[in-house]
Amino acid sequence: MRTGAAAHHDGYYHEAVRYDSDEELLAVAVPFLLGGVEAGEPTFVALGERTGELVRAALPARSGVEFLPGGDVYARPAAAIRSFRQLLADQVAAGAGQIRIIGEVPPVSLGPTWDWWARYESAINHAYDDFPLWGICAYDTRCTAAEVLADVARTHPRFATPDGGHVPSPTWTPPTTYLRQSRPVLPDPLQEAPPEVQVTAPTAAEARTAVYRADRGQLPADDVEDLVVAVSETVTNALRHGRPPVRLRVWAGIDRIVVTVSDGGDGPADPFAGLLPASHGAPGGLGLWITYQSCDHVTGYRGEDGFTLRLTAGNPHAPR
Question: Which of 9, 26, 90, 99 holds its CA 20 to 30 A away from the CA of 32?
Answer without folding.
Answer: 90
